[in-house]
Specification:
By secondary structure, this protein is of the alpha+beta class. Strands 2-6-5-4-1-3 form a six-stranded mixed sheet. β4 and β5 form a beta hairpin. The two termini are 33 Å apart.
Length: 160
C-alpha cells in the first residue's frame, strides 16, 4: 500500500509541476525532449556566473540570442550556453515571461547523471525520489508532524 501511495504522490507532483510550468500537453513535451533539434539560448557576456551559482531563472535581458529553427515555443526544452556557445545547462523556455528560461539542470549535474539530460520526466522523477528519501531520513512523516513540504524546489538541490 505504501508503494502505491508513493507512486500516486509522484504522479500528482509531476502533473502539478508541469501545470506550474504551464505545459499544456505532457506528451508533446516528452517528444520535444527526445528531439535532436533543441534550440540554444546564448547568454550575454558576463551573465553566466549567476546561473552557475545556482540561480534557476534566466531573465530575458541576460539573453544575447536564440539559435534554432523554428524558434522555441513555451514549454520547449532548450540548451543554455555562454557567449562562446559552451553549454551551461538546459531548461524550459517561456516566451510569455520576463524569465525566458527556467534552468532545470547544470552541465556539471548532467555529467554526474547523464540519464536525466534533456529529459524532464526522468529529472523530475529523480528529484522527487531524492526528496522523499531525504524526508524519510529526517523521520518524516512522524507522530509529531501533521504537515511537511514533500518537495522544496531549489532547497532540495545538492548545491543550494
Amino acid at each position: 500500500m505504501a508503494k502505491k501511495q508513493q507512486e500516486l504522490r509522484r504522479c500528482f507532483l509531476l502533473f502539478w509541476i508541469l501545470s506550474i510550468l504551464k505545459v499544456e500537453h505532457y506528451c508533446c513535451l516528452h517528444m520535444v525532449t527526445m528531439s535532436p533539434g533543441v534550440a540554444k539560448v546564448i547568454l550575454k557576456k558576463g551573465k553566466t556566473q549567476l546561473f552557475r551559482d545556482g540561480s534557476p531563472m534566466v531573465y530575458s535581458g541576460a539573453v544575447d540570442r536564440i539559435i534554432g529553427r523554428p524558434p522555441p515555443k513555451t514549454g520547449d526544452v532548450v540548451l543554455l550556453a555562454d557567449g562562446t556557445r559552451k553549454p551551461i545547462g538546459w531548461g524550459l523556455y517561456n516566451s510569455c515571461s520576463m524569465f525566458c528560461v527556467r534552468l532545470m539542470q547544470l552541465e556539471e549535474e548532467v555529467s554526474g547523471d547523464p540519464s536525466c539530460a534533456l529529459n524532464v520526466e526522468k529529472l523530475l522523477e529523480t528529484r522527487i525520489d531524492a526528496a522523499i528519501k531525504l524526508r524519510k531520513s529526517l523521520g518524516l512523516p512522524s507522530a509529531n508532524t501533521n504537515a511537511y513540504r514533500l518537495v522544496n524546489s531549489e532547497g532540495d538541490r545538492p548545491y543550494s
